[in-house]
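Structure in, sequence out. Go:
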């Protein structure tokens, strides 16, 4: 999966909301921030997913209400879901070449 498809899926899923790209949060850059409350990290097959999960933890520590990792379908199902459930992170993948966002784990209240 290419990162462009994931960005397209996120924009399509949260249509009508305010977006900010590459937002500084602590010592990391978050890929997408929606309505100043949802931090999103986009990771393609070639990216380091562990670093993405660490970035989401930093975002939650800095006050973001929700943190979501968007990756490929193959990678989403290979990840251990217990990490996302324990910390309240969301996990999703882009489907149909970025036309839709499919939730593997949806955070409560989102």
């Amino acid at each position: 999966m290419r990162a462009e498809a994931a960005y397209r899926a996120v924009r399509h899923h949260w249509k009508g909301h305010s977006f900010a790209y590459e937002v500084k949060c602590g010592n990391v850059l978050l890929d997408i921030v929606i309505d100043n409350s949802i931090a999103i990290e986009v990771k393609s097959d070639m990216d380091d997913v562990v670093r993405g999960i660490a970035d989401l933890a930093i975002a939650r520590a800095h006050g973001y209400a929700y943190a979501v990792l968007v990756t490929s379908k193959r990678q989403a199902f290979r990840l251990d879901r217990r990490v996302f459930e324990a910390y309240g992170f969301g996990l999703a993948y882009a489907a149909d070449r970025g036309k839709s966002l499919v939730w593997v784990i949806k955070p409560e209240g989102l």
